Amino acid sequence: MSASGPLPDAVQEREALAERVSATVLAFPGVAGPHGGRYNDIATFRPGGRLIGVRIGEGDEPVEVGVVLGLDRPIPDVVADLRDAVSRLCGGAAVDITVGDLAVDPAVEGAATDGGGAAAEGAAAVGVDPGRMVR
Amino acid sequence: MTESIPRAGGASTRTTTTSTTITPTTTVSSPARLADETAQGKTTIAASVVQKIAGIAAREISGVHSLGGGVSRAFGALRERIPGGGAGTTNIAGVQVEVGEKQAAIDLDIVVEYGASIVELARAVRRNVITAVERMTGLEVIEVNIAVNDIHLPEIEAAEAIPAPVTPRVE
């Protein structure tokens, strides 16, 4: 588009696919929003901004999708249905799904965040019995 | 020398362990493992997701006054003041989780209401947390450690005043 000339078709195609996948994901029942993953790396770069929550892999790489889910259905059920839908869009490609967070009614979560929080992800192992093995 | 055997075994059987790890079907209630999805892609569930579910499930049991207390509360107060300390991670007081591919371990700090049997309460909390996390995430919960940090006495909060200072009995 810029001085470097028109984008190669493949790139444009992937961007268009990412947009279609994003639209499908966001409209999916049980999905509350997109999520960029732990490092905000589940995203598609394109002119006009970053599309958070979808990354179309090159070649054999899987399609990556990051979502925030609601609590109304078990996560594995939603994820399985979502994977089917996205995979169909992407010609049967493998789809990696990251459930980055839950959208919970703040009233329910309520005092959960009062007084700050305990060690989360990064420091989750603090004070944990070192003999414990989590697969 | 005993140490070298399990270490070497652990390292070399990396490929074979994949077949063995699929076998444990622990509780009947736990849904199908996410392992069978490898061909179609993998599923990652963030620790904050498990944290929220565990926190809500623990709170559902009447007799639980609040979560947190003790060290975790002090930690949280500190973390709040650190810029970016809470970015991307949810800080839920009193709930610490460790999440693997198929399993999760949960540590809870709770404050109980006075009048509840703590042993019964802890059992109920544990049961509810395991059920909720296993059902909602499909992860197998390997343990729920509960630390009762404090007991909440309703009458003291109502009176607010500390009982009259103890006068020395001896002079």
Main attributes of the structure:
heterodimer, A: 135 residues, alpha+beta, Alpha-Beta Plaits, 4-stranded mixed sheet, two-stranded antiparallel sheet, 3 helices, 21% strand, globular, B: 171 residues, 6 helices, 5 strands, elongated, disordered N terminus, Alkaline shock family protein YloU (chain A)
The SS-based structural class of chain B is alpha+beta
CATH homologous superfamily of chain A - what is it? Cation efflux protein, cytoplasmic domain
Helix content of chain A: 25-40%
How far apart the termini of chain A lie comes to: 48 Å
CATH topology of the domain at 43-157 in chain B: Alpha-Beta Plaits
Q: How many separate domains make up the residues of chain A?
A: 1
CATH superfamily of the domain at 43-157 in chain B: Cation efflux protein, cytoplasmic domain
Topology:
The complex is a heterodimer of chains A (135) and B (171).
Chain A: H1 9-27, E1 31-34, E2 43-46, E3 49-52, E4 54-55, E5 63-69, H2 75-89, E6 95-102, H3 106-109
Parallel strand pairs in A: 5-6
Antiparallel strand pairs in A: 1-5, 2-3, 4-5
Chain B: H1 4-12, H2 14-22, E1 43-45, H3 47-59, E2 64-67, H4 71-80, E3 95-99, E4 103-113, H5 118-137, E5 140-152, H6 154-159
Parallel strand pairs in B: 4-5
Antiparallel strand pairs in B: 2-4, 3-4
Protein name (chain A): Alkaline shock family protein YloU
Describe this structure in words.
The complex is a heterodimer of chains A (135) and B (171). With 135 residues, chain A is an alpha+beta fold. Chain A is built from three helices and six strands. Chain A has helices at 9-27, 75-89, 106-109; strands at residues 31-34, 43-46, 49-52, 54-55, 63-69, 95-102. In chain A, the strands form two sheets. In chain A, strands 1, 4, 5 and 6 form a four-stranded mixed β-sheet that branches. Chain A has a two-stranded antiparallel ribbon with strand order 2-3. In chain A, a hairpin with a 2-residue loop joins strand 2 (43-46) and strand 3. In chain A, helix 1 (9-27) runs antiparallel to helix 2. Chain A is globular and about 50 Å long. Chain B has helices at 4-12, 14-22, 47-59, 71-80, 118-137, 154-159, and strands spanning 43-45, 64-67, 95-99, 103-113, 140-152. In chain B, strands 2, 3, 4 and 5 form a four-stranded mixed β-sheet that branches. Chain B is elongated. The interface between A and B is large, with 46 and 61 residues. Strand 6 (95-102) of chain A pairs parallel with strand 1 (43-45) of chain B.
